[in-house]
Structures are given as C-alpha cells and as structure tokens.
C-alpha cells in the first residue's frame, strides 16, 4: 500500500476525463500488510514509475483503487495514470464512490492499494529483505555488540544477493528496475 499527504489540490474534467492535481506532496511511503508490516519512504518519481513499467507489478496493467481523504471526507477512486511534474502529482482517475470531489481543496491524504497480495516473487522478497536489512543496520548502529543481530544481517544480505543473482539471470529488465527502485548498487 502507498500513502501520501498533500497541502492542496484541484479537480477538473477535460474531455470526460477526471483529473486531480496534488500539490506539495509530503510523507510518501510504501508499506506492507501483515505479517511483515514493513515500510519504506519513496519519492514521487518512484511512485509514478509504477504506471510506466510493464512488469507484473505495474499499475499500467491493473489500475489500483485508492481512497482520497479531503478535509475528512473520503472519496474512493481508481487511479488510471500518474505523472510527476515539478513536484506536483497529476492523476487521471475514475470516481467509484458517489461523493463529488470539490473543484479546489486544501490538505489531505491519498491511500493507494497495491491490488496484489504478492509477497513471494523474487522482486518482493528482495524488497522485504532490503527493508529488514535497513532496520537491522539501524539497530546495530545503536547496539554495536549485538552479535546475534549481526549474524542475522549477514544472512539477510546473502539471501538478498542470491535472489538478485537469480533475478538477473531470469529477468534482466525486472532486475534493473528493482535495483533502481530500491537504490541498490549492481
């Protein structure tokens, strides 16, 4: 799931196409549901790339549902496309709920459903391992003598490396996209 906050926005209809513009995006994060409950911050470019990729996790093939919270009023929408132009998100949407979205609105939030329960693919496993590695690295900075956590960290790094090597052999484009999304070195 993805979550973001914004300071202002506007809604328009152009040629029977509903559009929303969200300004001053803050706190853009990706998080997973139970049992992992992992999260990581992402930037607006990484968010918009979800509509550009043509892999299995692309929103281009399966538009996600979302909840737009404007001043406490919830609007259920489907996100057709997303563009990041000068730190402003432009979203093409389909309105699912019966409530009308105001033409101009102030701060609010957007929650985007992944629409997938995928946690077994190599790409998702690498992302889960990366989040756990970051958490353990932070823990070890505070607790330098925690040898058990250090061994766990090394085991996770090795598992992630094996998965990345597998992915590199089987799907080089997926590997390149994943490396870029997670900010990893090749």
TrEMBL record:
Name of the protein: Ribosomal protein S15
Please give the NCBIfam families that the UniProt record associates with this protein. Answer: S15_bact
Q: Which GO terms describe its molecular function?
A: structural constituent of ribosome
Q: Name one Pfam family in it.
A: Ribosomal_S15
Keywords from the named record: Ribonucleoprotein, Ribosomal protein
Q: Coiled-coil annotation: which residues?
A: none
Acyltransferase is among the record's keywords: no
HAMAP family tied to this protein: Ribosomal_uS15_B
Question: What InterPro entries does the record point to?
Answer: Ribosomal_uS15, Ribosomal_uS15_bac-type, uS15_NS1_RNA-bd_sf
Q: What cellular-component terms does GO give this entry?
A: cytosolic small ribosomal subunit
Sorted alphabetically, the Gene Ontology BP terms of this entry are: translation
């Amino acid at each position: 799931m993805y979550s973001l906050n914004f300071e202002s926005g506007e809604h328009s209809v152009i040629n029977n196409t509903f559009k929303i513009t969200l300004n001053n995006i803050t706190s853009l994060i990706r998080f997973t549901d139970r049992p992992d409950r992992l999260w990581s911050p992402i930037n607006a470019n990484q968010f918009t790339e979800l509509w550009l990729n043509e892999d299995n996790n692309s929103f281009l093939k399966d538009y996600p549902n979302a909840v737009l919270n404007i001043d406490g009023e919830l609007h259920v929408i489907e996100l057709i496309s997303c563009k990041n132009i000068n730190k402003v998100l432009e979203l093409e949407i389909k309105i699912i709920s019966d409530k009308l979205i105001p033409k101009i609105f102030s701060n609010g939030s957007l929650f985007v459903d992944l629409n997938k329960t995928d946690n077994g693919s190599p790409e998702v496993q690498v992302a889960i391992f990366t989040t756990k590695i970051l958490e353990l690295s932070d823990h070890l900075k505070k607790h330098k003598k925690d040898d058990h956590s250090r061994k766990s960290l090394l085991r996770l790094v090795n598992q992630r490396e094996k998965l990345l090597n597998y992915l590199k052999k089987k799907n080089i484009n997926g590997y390149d996209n994943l490396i870029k999304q997670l900010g990893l070195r090749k």
